[in-house]
């Protein structure tokens, strides 16, 4: 399945729109924005608060998540969704897998098996 590209990125902290360029794609505080580019600042902040960016951007994960086969992006999405933790994507994939495994071990959630 091909990736869907969006023209704008949204700064998570203040809701300001930025154009998508190779430089801005490397910023960790930006999210792809699929909403109305002419929406007011309040509407964009509500879009972030309501979690619409998560539903439209996050890939659907299978019922079981295999840490050993997951990519960096999959690990980051899983850690954010399941544990509310943001991972540093500059680290190696093996380091990220170890961090997610540690989060799973420390999790009180019965559905997550470490």
3D architecture notes:
The chain is mainly α and 114 residues long. It folds into 2 domains: 1-57, no CATH class; 58-114, no CATH class. It is 39% helix and 10% strand. The protein is built from 5 helices and 3 strands. A 3-stranded antiparallel β-sheet has the order 2-1-3, with no helix packed on it. A hairpin with a 5-residue loop joins β1 (8-11) and β2 (17-19). α4 (72-83) runs parallel beside α5. It is elongated, with a radius of gyration of 15 Å. The model is unreliable at 55-59 (pLDDT under 50).
Rg over alpha carbons: 15 Å
Major sheet attributes:
3 strands, antiparallel
- Look at the helices and sheets and give the structural class: mainly alpha
Mean pLDDT: 78
- What strand order characterises the main sheet? 2-1-3
Percent helix, as a range, is: 25-40%
Number of strands: 3
Count of folded domains:
2
Strand-residue proportion? 5-15%
* Backbone shape: elongated
Quaternary structure of the protein: single chain
Q: Which stretches of 5+ consecutive residues score pLDDT under 50? A: 55-59
How far from one another are the termini? 30 Å
Number of helices: 5
SSE order in H/E notation? EEHEHHHH
């Amino acid at each position: 399945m091909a990736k869907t590209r969006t023209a704008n990125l949204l700064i998570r902290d203040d809701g300001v729109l930025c154009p998508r360029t190779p430089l801005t794609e490397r910023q960790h505080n930006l999210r792809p924005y699929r909403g109305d580019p002419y929406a007011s600042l309040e509407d964009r902040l509500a879009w972030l608060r309501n979690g619409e960016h998560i539903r439209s951007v996050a890939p659907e994960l299978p019922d079981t998540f295999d840490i050993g086969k997951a990519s960096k992006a999959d690990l980051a999405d899983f850690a954010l969704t399941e544990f509310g933790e943001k991972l540093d994507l500059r680290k190696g994939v093996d380091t990220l897998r170890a961090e997610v495994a540690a989060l799973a071990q420390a999790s009180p959630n019965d559905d997550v098996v470490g």
